């Protein structure tokens, strides 16, 4: 199998995970995630995910004292709260999560991190915040890619993934801005890596 075909297959696999994530962040089905904090006691994380999805920093401030574990995953797409806040481009929520103990390198169910999400969707402001917390940029997602590699794949190989997100969440995906910003994000990641 040639390298271009492998990249296309990787892009399709990312799209499959993206479908689940999109359904989750769009609320289809509603974000109802439960974790066990003690035997027999279920804790509802839906308000945490709602705050991260909507950027509601007041709601997040209200519930932060009760959050014991930030490394929970939404049940449909498998994103951590930090990754969800990055996807929806909510810098204040990202800051609050990180200052409250969210793991900068915490993995989504697909193996990606918040840095993968911020880089792939070209959330420059959020990525700047994440880079200030010294993430491990050598981490690979479940498809074997670093955040840098996800943003440097050729545009024709990933355009379909972005178009899918544009159809599901048009307000969240600006194709032209992403296409123009991908080299900027790649430079940010490369510069941060070289400065370590």
Describe what this molecule looks like in 3D.
The chain has 196 residues and is mainly α. The chain has one domain: Serine Threonine Protein Phosphatase 5, Tetratricopeptide repeat (Alpha Horseshoe). The chain is built from ten helices and two strands. The chain has helices spanning 3-25, 46-54, 57-63, 81-87, 91-99, 114-120, 124-132, 147-152, 155-168, 175-194, and strands at residues 34-38, 41-44. It has a two-stranded antiparallel ribbon. Helix 1 runs parallel beside helix 9, helix 2 packs antiparallel against helix 3 (57-63) and helix 4 packs parallel to helix 6. The chain is globular, with a radius of gyration of 16 Å.
The CATH class is Mainly Alpha
* Poorly predicted residue ranges: 8-19, 21-43
Which percent bin holds the helix content?
A: 55-70%
Mean pLDDT: 83
Specify the number of helices.
10
- Radius of gyration (CA) equals 16 Å
**What is the β-strand count?**
2
Might you state the CATH topology name? Serine Threonine Protein Phosphatase 5, Tetratricopeptide repeat
Q: How would you sum up the major sheet?
A: 2 strands, antiparallel
Number of domains as seen in the coordinates? 1
Structural class: mainly alpha
- Cα shape: globular
**End-to-end C-alpha gap:** 35 Å
Q: How large is the share of residues in beta strands?
A: under 5%
Query: Considering the protein shown, what is the CATH homologous superfamily?
Result: Ankyrin repeat-containing domain
CATH-scheme architecture: Alpha Horseshoe
Element order, helices and strands? HEEHHHHHHHHH
